[in-house]
Design brief:
The structure holds two protein chains of two kinds. Chain A is of the alpha/beta class. In chain A, the strands form two sheets. A five-stranded mixed sheet of chain A has the order 1-2-5-4-3. The longest helix of chain A has 19 residues, at 101-119. In chain A, a hairpin with a 2-residue loop joins strand 1 (22-27) and strand 2 (30-35). Chain A has helices at residues 6-19, 37-49, 101-119, 149-157; strands at residues 22-27, 30-35, 54-63, 68-77, 82-91, 96-98, 122-124. Chain A is built from four helices and seven strands; from the N terminus they run αββαββββαβα. Chain B starts with a helix and ends with a helix. Chain B has helices at residues 2-10, 54-59, 63-70, 78-93, 99-127, 131-152, 175-194, 198-204, 212-218, 222-227, 234-237, 258-282, 339-351, 359-365, 370-374; strands at residues 14-19, 30-36, 39-46, 162-163, 166-167, 305-313, 316-324, 332-336. Chain B is globular, with a radius of gyration of 21 Å. In chain B, a hairpin with a 7-residue loop joins strand 7 and strand 8. In chain B, helix 4 (78-93) runs antiparallel to helix 5 (99-127) and helix 6 runs antiparallel to helix 7. Chain B has 15 helices and eight strands. Chain B is an alpha+beta fold. In chain B, 51% of the residues are buried. Chain B has one domain (53-338): Cytochrome-c3 Hydrogenase, chain B, CATH 1.10.645.10. The chains are: A alpha/beta, B alpha+beta. The A-B interface holds A 26, 29-30, 32, 53-57, 59, 61-62, 72, 74, 76, 78, 81, 83, 85, 104-107, 109-110, 114, 118, 132-135, 142-143, 149 and B 47-48, 51, 53, 55-56, 216-219, 221, 230, 232, 237-238, 306-308, 310, 317, 319, 321, 323, 331-332, 334, 336, 340-341, 344-345, 349, 374.
């Protein structure tokens, strides 16, 4: 069943001509665009006005080999029924990005708080980045690709001198 | 008594109150309340008691293993999460799902939604002091668990019944009659729920009012948003599986209080029953799984790419973002549970300024689950 992608194409054209972003239409109701973090806030303000008032999720993908984090903002528009994903890339060393909590309020604030805890991304302008899930966590952020939880558990939870637990060290 | 003494000696009425994690009604979750006399002045959510790191665990496992893992994302609606995971892998790998499998998936997802909504009624009853409702709910829920046992093999966890490519097993021969019989029982339950209970109304009307603009701002989805007056449902706005062929209504109410949410829950059970009856009538014969995936295959490489799959879970918008770098295992999985925002931003907002006695009523009127918050 092939449906026309008129609405999607129109929106993407607008974004490309206004902000010079790279984008593609994956299928019906799915648009992905790549941009850089300097343009992020102005693009977010623009799409908020265009009806994307629900921030579905913020996610981070750790591309270890390239030394970069990819931060993705998944936005849903109840009016247009389109899911727009905005992607930016930031360096893995001292990762930071501007906060969108001024645009999507508490919704964005909580998502950023989680991503800060799990990946260590600093969201500038977010007033509360306190830990959510982990208590007294001193290690590197646990969802980074170079954090090996198997090693961590072996070191922290299993005692070599205990004959019942020695199997985990063999 | 100690509290009393302290309050009298200092002349202050302000203190901290911990709702959960050991509170009988809180689940594996806690909220720290700042209280002045009987009034809550501020609330701060303290999640993390159920954090299992599924997003990370899934990076280490094959899709067929992840299907089993995905049950556990939300304990009370495992089949819905099964479905979302399977859909994400299907879309990423471009797998065709047979028609019959799509119908079975819908039937199972709706049964799962009904039993999750029944629990919602149960815990809301206990939150408002109506203990019989809790026992009633868990009694009737068991009928559906019996169906799950018959169809999937597991009562609570279907262990990856809805898997990439279709479903693990076909419906048993007499499944249709048995499901219809159970639906009659659920009908009984709905009638009991609908009895206008003056005590419950007194406890729930006008409590925890969530206005539409606040709901949008705080990121509420699903039943919460519908109870605040917005007609949204992922099954309607972005139909997956065969929902575009099925006829059902999306209940909406304007009040936005605990009672409106409770009524939305009842209405949704009725709509789910309607969907199941239609699906049972229209279900075609044929394969229940893509023949390629009938025998579980290991080491199937996923093509490079990324997908974002949204579903209507019992609690709201549930989604999975899956990235593959061309390996057998997903490179990154992001799970978006509806309770993540409901239990932090919305709950903190609603608890501000209410009486202590209303805290459990508001808390359980929101149909929340700590498991899909913590993941």
């Amino acid at each position: 069943m092939k449906s026309d992608l008129k609405n999607e194409e129109k929106l993407l054209k607008e974004l490309v001509s206004n902000y010079n972003v790279k984008g593609r239409i994956q299928r019906e109701r799915r648009i992905w665009i790549n941009t850089d973090k300097e343009k992020l806030i102005s693009i977010c303000k623009f799409v908020k006005e265009k009806g994307f008032d629900h921030l579905s999720a913020i996610s981070v993908t750790d591309w270890l080999k390239e030394g970069e984090y990819e931060i993705t903002y998944h936005l849903w528009s109840y009016k247009r029924k389109i899911l727009l994903t905005i992607k930016i890339r930031v360096s893995r060393k001292n990762p930071s990005a501007p906060s969108v909590s001024a645009i999507w309020d508490r919704n964005a604030q909580i998502h950023e708080r989680e991503m800060h805890e799990m990946f260590g991304v600093e969201f500038k302008g977010n007033d509360d980045l306190a830990p959510l899930f982990l208590e007294n966590w001193q290690n590197s952020p646990p969802f980074r690709k170079d954090f090996d939880w198997r090693e961590y558990v072996k070191k922290e939870c299993y005692n070599k001198d205990n004959e019942r637990e020695i199997v985990y060290h063999e | 008594m100690n509290n009393q003494v302290m309050l009298e000696s200092t002349g202050k009425n302000e203190y901290e109150l911990f709702f959960g994690p050991a509170h009988p009604g809180s689940g594996n979750f806690s909220v720290k309340l700042e209280v002045d006399g009987e009034i809550v002045t501020s609330a701060r959510a303290n999640p993390g008691y159920l954090h299992r790191g599924f997003e990370k665990l899934m990076e280490y496992r094959l899709p067929i293993q992840n299907a089993v893992l995905s049950d556990r994302i939300c304990i009370l609606e495992p089949l819905n999460w099964n479905l979302i995971h399977a859909e994400a892998v299907d879309e990423l790998m471009g797998i065709d799902v047979p028609e019959r499998a799509k119908y079975i998936r819908v039937i199972m997802a709706e049964l799962s939604r009904i039993q999750s909504h029944i629990i919602w009624f149960g815990v809301f009853s206990i939150g408002t002091g109506f203990d019989t409702g809790f026992k009633m709910a868990f009694g009737y829920r068991d009928y559906i668990l019996d169906l799950f046992e018959m169809i999937t093999g597991g009562r609570v966890y279907p262990t990856g019944y809805i898997c990439p490519g279709g479903v693990r097993r076909d419906l048993p021969k007499d499944a249709s009659e048995k499901i219809l019989k159970v639906l009659d029982k659920i009908d009984e339950m709905v009638k009991l729920e609908e009895i206008e209970n003056p005590v419950l109304q007194a406890r729930a009307r006008g409590i925890g009012v969530l206005k539409l603009e606040d709901a949008m701002r705080l990121g509420a989805t699903g039943p919460l948003l519908r109870a605040s007056g917005m007609k949204v449902d992922v099954r309607k706005e972005e139909p997956y599986e065969v929902y575009d062929r099925l006829d059902f209504e999306v209940p909406v109410r304007k009040e936005g209080d605990a009672y409106a949410r409770y009524m939305i829950g009842i209405e949704e059970i009725k709509q789910s029953m309607k969907i199941i009856k239609q699906a049972l009538r229209e279900i075609p014969q044929g394969e229940y799984i893509n023949p390629q995936f009938k025998k579980p295959k290991l080491n199937v490489k996923m093509p490079k790419g990324e997908v974002y799959v949204r579903n209507e879970g019992g609690r709201g918008e549930a989604a999975i973002y899956m990235v593959s770098d061309g390996n057998t295992k997903p490179y990154r999985v992001k799970i978006r549970g509806p309770s993540f925002l409901h239990m932090i931003s919305v709950l903190e907002f609603l608890l501000k300024g209410v009486q202590i006695a209303d805290v459990p009523a508001i808390y359980w009127s929101m149909n929340i689950c700590p498991a899909d918050l913590d993941r």
